């Protein structure tokens, strides 16, 4: 467990730990290239989480895994991840930067020279700030935010302890939900990862905080 002031488990933490669990079940010749996850229930930050990995397929070029994050016997997050051999080759191109909200970010600490460590760290960080891009056109209003699903594609090698630019847009928000897209670039301007997330953006009624805090007694 990671100490937290939040009563609910941070979604990026669960996604990153699911990816760590999945990665430990595939050979070193494979690297993760995409993940898709669903937040099916709120996790409790003070409770331990069990990560259960199911081997969906082991092929020559691709491997697939499904991971369930479980608390008290019930899933709180379900992820499917796909891994691809590192040796395949093909055409090369990279999109350019654009934006609605831009964030520069990196790990404060120097990280080990382990590609998996950097990928899982980025999965953790990718859940930060993305949903708030949906609220850029609605500044001054208060909304409850929560991740509903999360998908990532890892396109090129990168280091999570070097500056990365997170280019974020929200093409639609309706009926208390918003869709957001994020593109992550390295300092050379190369696109290294893409993120898509749908989230809850519910108008706050009363005095409840946007993010539940430990000890908050709501009315």
Automatic annotation (TrEMBL):
GO MF entries = fatty acyl-CoA hydrolase activity
Protein's name according to its UniProt entry: Acyl-CoA thioesterase II
Q: Which InterPro entries match?
A: Acyl-CoA_hotdog, Acyl_CoA_thio, HotDog_dom_sf, TesB_ACOT8-like_N, TesB_C
Residues annotated as domain Acyl-CoA thioesterase-like N-terminal HotDog: 8-84
Give the top-rank taxon of the lineage listed in the UniProt record for this protein: Bacteria
The beginning of the lineage is: Bacteria, Bacillati, Actinomycetota, Actinomycetes, Mycobacteriales
- Source organism: Corynebacterium urealyticum
Pfam families registered for this protein in UniProt: 4HBT_3 (PF13622), Acyl_CoA_thio (PF02551)
Q: Which family does it belong to?
A: Belongs to the C/M/P thioester hydrolase family.
